[in-house]
Amino acid sequence: MIARIQEPIPATRSGMDTSAAIETLRLSLTGFRPTDLNGLAAIFADRDTARMTHAVPHPFSEGDAVSRLARMMQAPDAHWAIRTGDETLIGTISLTRGGMCRESGGQAADLHTFGPNLSVFIAPEHQRQGYATEAIDGLLRRIKKRKAHKVIHAAHFADNLASARLLVHADFLYTGRRTMETSLAREGAHQALHMIRLL
Predict the structure, then answer these.
(1) Can you count the helices (H) and strands (E) in the chain?
(2) This prediction's pTM
């Protein structure tokens, strides 16, 4: 799934209560903690994960992990840690409004006029166990219950078949919009496919 350079949605505008964890059958979505540094580094250190994002470089240095964790901790209404029952950090899920995208030389492209953008990442060793689907479902159930948003946007690079399957399974629909976008972890522009989910 494409992680963009984005702005958090202020809690007063998102309608989300960020003080309470979001609980699912196997997971807990919580705020980030200073002790999450190594876990966060493990999630984004994988080359294949980085290649499917705009804003995650490869290699992903300790400095990259420190700055990303600081941003996530400063915006608890936009970024959640995905934890298993034993509190192990296995992934991240974010809901952010659009900033400048890398399409068309960094010009604003109104990618998020349909709604805030969803991004989810699971550490490689925890993938293919249904955790991403469960985290998306838990977050979007909370959003729907709070009537915070009616439409959620997501996008994936055309060669990211895993994200395509995940988003379809999570009831996202293709809008037909395709854009050429870049990634810090690979050269050139690549086609991105845009999707929405109605709540």
Answers:
(1) 6, 9
(2) 0.85
